[in-house]
Structures are given as C-alpha cells and as structure tokens.
Amino acid sequence: MTLRHSGFAMNVHQGSLQLFLTTNLADTYSPIVVALRDGAGEPLGARRVDLSLDAPAMPTLQQMHKIVAQHPMIQAEFFMRMDALVHSELLCIRNAFLGKRGLFDKSVHWPDIEDDYASTGEPGIANFPRSALKPLEAQGRGFSHGHEKVIAVPQCRAARLKELFSGSGSEDGDDELRSWMRQARQAVLDACATLQYDSAILSATQLGVSVLPEPFTARQQRQSRFDGGVEVDGTVRQLVPATGAQRQGHLVREDVLATAAQRPSRHPYKEVPLTGAQQAMLPRYRLHASFGALPMLNEEGLCEAAMESDAAEHDLFGAAKQEPQHATGLFEYTRPFITNADNEIIGFRMPDGEEADEEDLEADARAWSTCFARDARSCHAVNHDHDCTATCVKYQKARSTKTGANAPQHAPKGDQKPSGEHVPLCRFWYYRILLFNVSGKIVNILRRGKALVPRPFIATTNEANECGRANPFRGQPFRSSSSDVLQCAVRCNADVQYQ
What we know:
Elements: E1 2-3, H1 8-13, E2 17-24, H2 31-38, H3 61-70, H4 72-90, E3 96-98, E4 101-102, E5 129-133, E6 136-139, E7 143-152, H5 158-166, H6 173-195, H7 202-207, H8 218-224, H9 249-261, H10 304-308, E8 337-339, E9 345-348, H11 358-383, E10 431-438, E11 441-448, E12 457-458, E13 470-471, H12 484-490, E14 493-498
Antiparallel strand pairs: 1-3, 1-5, 2-7, 2-14, 3-4, 5-7, 6-7, 8-9, 10-11, 12-13
Helix pairs in contact: 2-4, 3-4, 11-12
C-alpha cells in the first residue's frame, strides 16, 4: 500500500521523523463484521446486531470464525473500510491507495491539495505526514495486515541544522549546535509522550484521572523477577506489585450472569457470546451526540449495562432466537451544536435543549476524560500484554539445553544464561541481561521482560537497532507499545514505534 506520491528517499534525506504503525484489526470480534454479513437485511435496514449500543449483542467466537471462513469478501470489505478510517481520521491522510484503487469514496469532494504533503493539514497521530508506505502480509489464519512506515515533518527543520553545521548560525556555532540538539531531543521526547504509550495508565495520569493499577500478574512477576527480592550480589530487586490480569469483558459478563442464574459458566469459545468484549464494544462516549449525557464505563473500562443484562444472543447459522431488530444505528450528530447563519458552531446544546454553560462544558470534559482513560487502560492491557509463546522464537532454532562451563553458577532458579544456549532469545526483545559482581567475578543473568523506564529517554546504544528510538514511560515489563487514541478508536492490537 502506498500513500500519496511523495519521494520516500527525499523525506529520509531531509531528516524527517518516523512512525512505525501496525494495526491488526480484530475481525472476529467486530460487530461490523456481523453487520456486513447480514447485508441490508429484510426489511431494508434491519440488522441482527445493533451498532448504536455500547456493547452490541454478538455471536460466539466460534461462530465469528465460521463467518470469516465462509465469506472471505466480508474480511476484505472490513479491512478496507477500517483501514480507510485509520488513514483518514487518525493519520489524517485521505489520498491513500491500495495498488491503483483508492481507499476513499470518490463521491465526496475533498479540497484540492497544492503541496506534496500526504497530510490533510490536520494534526493526526503522526503529526503532519509527508508520505507513508505499507506492505501487506497475512499470517496464521490469513487475515491481512500491514507494517506501515509514516514519514512526518519534524518541528525542528533540517534547514536550520544545515546552518548550524556550516557555522553560519552564529560566532559560537558549537554551543548553538549543542543547544539546538538538546531542544530537538526534548521535542522528540515530548512528541513521543503524546503519540506512543508503553503504559496502559499513562494517558490517565496525563489527564489527571484516577484509574485501577496497571494489570500485572503474579506469573509475570515471577518471570521478570520484579518482586523486591534479593539478588545474587546482595542488592534488592525492584518491586512491581502484582495486581492481577485484565480479563476479557465477555468472560466477566458470563461470570456475572452465571452467578445470577446459579448455573455453571459456559464454554468460552463455543457457547459464550462476545457481547461486552473490549474489541466488540462501540462505546458511545466517543460520539458528538453523547455530549452532556455520556454513558459512563465502569472502572474496568466495560459497559455496565451489558454486564447486568442477559440480552438474547443470535444463532447466525440457523433460526434466530429472536426476531432481528430494526436497528439502523443512526445518530443525531448535529444535535449538540448551535450554529449561526454561516453554519459556524458558536455553542453547544444540552440534551434538554438548553445551551451549555461553562460548568456544563467542564462536567462533560471530566466525564469524557474518565471514560477515555478507563477505555484506553482496558483496551491497551488486553491487546498489548505480551505473553511468552512459541511465536517469540518461531524463526530461531532450538539450542542445546546442556549446562556449559561458562554457565552462571549463582543464578537463581528460573534465570537463564544470556548466550542463548538454554533457550532461544525472544525476537520481540522482551528480555534484559543483568551483570552482577559476585566475589570479584562478573555473573551475567538473562531475565524475561523489558527494563522499566521511570523517565523517558532516547536510546544511544544500538545492540537491537534502537539508536535514536524514543522510549516513553514503562511501568510494567510486558507491556508493548501502542497509542491510546488507536486503542479507543480501532480496539485491536495496534503497534506504534516513534523514532
């Protein structure tokens, strides 16, 4: 997939910043896939899934797998529609193409673009893109995704850097160059803190919202050894308290309903519907039409109404257990806006029709911040909690497990030697190598999990090709990088790396 026509080599030469983006769209969890499967419905506009709900009624995961297996065009249509939204609304790129096919509706006339920027001029999750390239691939069961490289314009222009290197900036060019580099480095860190998140609760901290602690299981604590114990050299390890895992919303719902009905829990794959799962939610707090009356998510970022009601689910492969609802999913998007004769927004209207005052605006902002922070935490924890599986080492050959003469003799049980002879190293770099001085001898120990990052920094080493990469705050060793905006918008595994 190529976006716009800007020269790729030219952008790199000009010192532009880069955003690496991968969205693994959750097709088997999405209510939009069910809506596409139903088509227009009978009568026109009828749907088995109501897209106007925070947590639409969904089939089971087994049934969703059957849908995408039997109808590959639904997968393709879902991918094209969602990818178009990611580019137009989140990256703010509307002139994108898959081969020769444009991703966007040609009936909509967008303003003409006079420059060579891919950006529409609105700041997106990559700021102002110059160009982007994304090769597509399919793995596992075959759903397509792409690894996108977005070239964005830095705020510190390369022309100024050229002046500093040529010495034409001032008489004391060396000091000015160092000052410029410090400012550029801080600008990169500031931008990274609002684009890339390695913590599920950082956006809540930035918004001043109190949320539940970041999920961290006892198993992860044992694997990473962030348990406050004593090291082989007598030093004390860092402590990350175990807080438990973030559970999928539909499984939480099943436990609540099973307890209320005094029955055993159903099979999570074959019998439990996906209603209430984070990836299957369409929270209405994101809509303009919810202004002044935001439907609040609970502390776990789930829809409370779905947790408490045993809504009838549908059998998509036979007779429906209930008649399809005539759900059009239409919203009054213009209801909250007060406009003048020139169609300019001059105020906001509350649900009762009265004009919103300053207190109403502040109350809505606080409610929205709480919903967004809870939603971002829940989605990030579910979609980006790294678990050590076979895919971590699938491109590496198994090594001998014999203990060699150079193996550390003082390593605690469960630690590994860093040479890779005990186990192949994780290709996602979820490990760290620690050095200890034991009786005058240096002992190397390999630990699972990434190092914690209490303060953001830019990498200066290049052991894992990380030189120049910005590292934001990380308070949990198994959390991968994403974006709070992407998590709340597309609700899937969305990898983000800012450099």
